[in-house]
Design a protein that fits this description.
There is one protein chain. Strands 1, 2, 3, 6, 7, 8, 9, 16, 17 and 18 form a ten-stranded mixed beta sheet that branches. Strands 12-14-10-15 form a four-stranded antiparallel beta sheet, with helices on one face. Strands 4-5-19 form a three-stranded antiparallel beta sheet. The longest helix is centred in the last third of the chain and has 19 residues. It is built from 14 helices and 19 strands. By secondary structure, it is α/β, with parallel strands linked by helices. Helix 1 crosses helix 3, helix 8 packs across helix 9 and helix 12 packs across helix 14. A hairpin with a 5-residue loop joins strand 8 and strand 9.
Length: about 475
Amino acid sequence: MRAITLAILLGTTATGAGLTPAAAQDRPDQKAFFEVYKELVETNTTLSSGSCTQAAAQIGARLKAAGYADADLTYFSVPDHPKEGGLVAILKGSNPRAKPMLLMAHIDVVEAKREDWTRDPFKLVEDGGYYYARGSTDDKAQAAIWSDAMIRFKTGGYHPKRTIKLALTCGEETTFAFNGAEWLAKNKPELIAAEFALNEGGGGLLTEEGERKTLFLQVGEKAAQNFTLLATNPGGHSSQPTPDNAIYQLSDALKAVQGYEFPIRFTDTTRAFFAGNAAAQPGPTGDAIKRLIADPSDAAANAVVSANKTYHSMLRTTCVATLLNAGHAENALPQRATANVNCRIFPGETVDATLAKLKELAGPKVTVTANQPVRPTAVPPTLDPKILNPAKAVAAKHFPGTAILPLMSTGATDGIFFEAIGIPVYGVPGLFIGSDINRAHGLNERMNVKSLYDGRDYLFDVVKAYAG
């Protein structure tokens, strides 16, 4: 749930009811969901030693037991990545004129070493009102909720007006892994064709006291792209240094990148987001936000707003050095120096244009290349009332008094691959997390028990609202 990282520093003030630690859930439907969630979380799907293919098959078996026909379930993988497969499931709608909707989630997880964790990362444990395990939040909570909803729709005899599709994919967490969402977009676009998709990236933020603070509907994201900066030199003996030094050349290029600010941009989403935050923040920051919306070239307003690192990243493309490698011996002049620069490219801006700017900044003595894989240009979805209004209406029932803001993620999800083929992707609200992002990607990842079950109820109802 990458977009939730944006919520940590937001200054919104709308709050709703509090959350308290919860005991095990007792409703029969909740117990059935727990079995889906537990099995999925406890199935290792890391790239190094796990299998998304196994996890997808287990979900598929549950869907078939619920009444789905073989024709409704499509498993996919490629020969050179047999353990990185996925699943597409389809519940047909009654109205052929209504375009399908797509529920998407990735089932792969970040690596987790047992010796580093307090508990076994692939054993779901409830403790103090939380479920602990790798993937308990990112993204198996949502994958389990979507899978459970599809099971409940079938067993409950629900007949949606629009077809509901479910895509569970692998490869989101690792750049060079086989990416199931990208593969589907390129090879099976008709299988996942939809009017819109619901994905990770939204959610809700809890205060330190456990109160619901704000809900977020992700509408758009940046494109993540890595670039390599390379300086080369014949080198020589370190006892006779020369000004022409690969490390210094690379350092100069990186300082130029550090000192450059990409221009401020707004989408409809970020404009609405900042307007909502300006209204909630009286004082210098709120005033500066209003001035910046009116005039993006206002340097003084930019200085105030961009002091918040989240706001800074939401306003522009950002590029930052993340890896360095240089030299071959302690007593030799460097023959080669390289750096990785990670860019988060604002929607509508391209990899090629970002590459051209980095080349300009690096100068003629340093080469700059875009690393594979090259991700598509981020396409911002519209603030479509058909998406926003049902999300708000259902939230008013489940989370009364809690505001919803549209949010553009400064991170990246697999939604970018579906957006590239014309499917707008929205990160749904519903699952509230703490300011520690539920420790996703880190040690002792966890999910608030009550938040999980409340979010499940919300998302079940919101899918039905969209599906008719």
